Here is the input.
Amino acid sequence: MFDLVIMVDWSAAASAGPAKPSPDRCWLAWATGGFRSDAEYFRTRRDCMKRIRDLLVSHDTSACVGFDFPFGYPAGSGLGGGRTAAARIAKTLQSDKQDRNNRFDVAARLNAEISSSPGPFWGCPAASASPQLTIKKPVFSHDNFHEWRIVEKYLREKKKQTTISSVWKLYTTGSVGSQSLTGLKELGDFAQIPETAHRVKFWPFETNWEADINGIVLTEIWPSLNNHGGYDHPIKDARQVLAARDWLLEKIADGTAQEAFSRPAWLSTEDEKKCRMEEGWILGVR
Here is the structure.
């Protein structure tokens, strides 16, 4: 199904990581043609994306690249998902060679554009707080959209995965909102690179779930779904990308990978459309 598999643990850090491999920076693991890499550490997002681009350019075949941040926002928010959200964020979010970035300014601007109430983005250092972006979580009072995407609500309520975080939370422990902003910015830029642009597809937005899986398929993953306890590495981020990669390789080997990309049968027609057009989905959640 894929000749190259890459799984990425992302970071929204605002500075370059230590030279020594460390937690909370970018990690990836990849595999092709029977070869499986060790977990690879990157001090910055730019270095991580360069490695991904180099792998994709040198393997002109079908590829799946999974990133552990949301690819979309709750339906009705106006932010959309996939290429639409990535292109919008890439226009305003800036990140330099050392990962310094303006994500809190971007979040404040988006808040002002999509709502007259505080939020929905929240969480920031005191120096970045403003009437548009608060340090603490405001009351969620938005009538046109929900706090949680459909896939997150399903994991929280049906699968009891209460550690999953809201895409609106930007700062402190358990936040994923900043990873999504910085990650979608990078994917928006990546989708414009001439060498690979014609092959890039955002799943499930541009693939109709499993119907058009070819080229370079960018997917959302949540590494906590995979058991990483059997991997001998001192850093959890490294174990998680190894486990996520091997999970997909096992699916490919036993012929069930296409099922992992397909629409969950229990989704209503209305909710399926919301996920495919705006919110996205987490690979493997059934």
